[in-house]
Amino acid sequence: MIASLLIATSTSIQANNNIEVSDSLSKIDLIDNTSLTYSSPSIPEEMNFAGSEIDLRRFDRREKLDKEILAVTYMHSTTLQMIKRANRYFPVIEPILKENNIPDDLKYLMVIESSVNPLAKSGAGAAGLWQFMPSTAKEYGIEVNGCVDERYDVEKATVAACKYLKNAYAKYGDWPSVAASYNAGQGRISHQLNRQNVTNSLDLHLVEETSRYVYRILAAKLLFTSPAEFGFRLRSSDLYPQLKTKSITVTTSISDLNQWANEQGTTLAFLKMLNPWLRDNNLINRNGKEYIIQIPTEDGLYYDTESIKAYNPAWVVE
User: Fold this and answer.
1) Which of 111, 159, 161, 242 has the lowest tally of Cβ within 10 angstroms?
2) pLDDT tens digits for 13-27?
3) Is the whole-model pTM more than 0.85?
């Protein structure tokens, strides 16, 4: 049917517009050039997540992971941006996780929380790479007010996430349960483990969002381990490099951030891009708190695509 329509269309074009179709363009060429090919990535029989071996042969687990792998594979623009951004932010996040004795795999929790977008904000009010709610952020040492919102500070938010994850691990003793609690809350996971009389959080009956959560993390790990196997073939020059900046320490209030930025040789726009935790046009600092503000360097304003290196060589196909 499709081939007939294509052939009829090409014949009509010739008759009405005197456009010649090349003799080399056969019927099969017309079909091949307009066909799309989709594939289903393979599902491993087991995976290691933060030291826990997860058996994926059981039908429910296999199909849940399959669903998330298909989602990450065919949400092309989002997935491509996640890999590009990871080249900028993984080098910042990984050392903080290591310093706090948090397994490296927990960075994939951040991936699915925010799609590696430090400006991400949910409809419920969670913000930043780790998607802290205001009350939880304050509980773990993050400042949130009209002038400053440190949920958008990559380093400070990661440190706070480490505190949460360590606290949860002390309660559960396994990282999959910790990950589930990051989505549902520790109280809910603990209550449901007791109520449903199971010891493995992957065996819980939960609302769909939480039920999918750990499998989304596993899918992210598989993707970042080898993007090319999922059809994502990037070059080093496609990735976002770490930005070159200089740090300025501030311990006083700044009444006009626009004027202050100009005095530093930059603009308010660049100041807000590099320091999204600055939420207003001033900085109120009555207690002499130390803030570190990033300012772009001259050479940091421009891309040098030839010098961009892949943080993980597995992300690129040169």
Assistant:
1) 242
2) 444 444 444 444 444
3) yes
